[in-house]
Amino acid sequence: MKYILLIGDGMGDTPVPELGGKTPLEAADKPAIDRLCAAAEPLLVRTVPDGYPPGSDVANLSLLGYEPEKYYTGRAPLEAASMGVAIPEDALAFRCNLVTVEYLDDDCMTMIDYSAGHISSEEAAELIAAVQEACGTDRLCFYPGVSYRHLLIHQGGGADSLRTVPPHDYMDQDVTEFYQQYLGVDYLAELMRISARVLADHPVNQRRQAEGKRPANSIWIWGEGKKPAMNTLQERHGISGSLISAVDLLKGLGVCSGLEVPEVEGATGWLDTNYQGKVDVALDALTRQDFALVHVEAPDEAGHQGSATNKVQAIEDFDAKIVAPIVEEMDRRGEPYRLVVTMDHYTPIARRTHEDWPVPMFIYDSSGVDQPAGTGYTEANIIAAAEQSGLCLDSGAAFFSRFVTPDASKYGERCG
Question: Domain residues of the chain, as ranges?
Answer without folding.
Answer: 2-71+230-404, 83-225
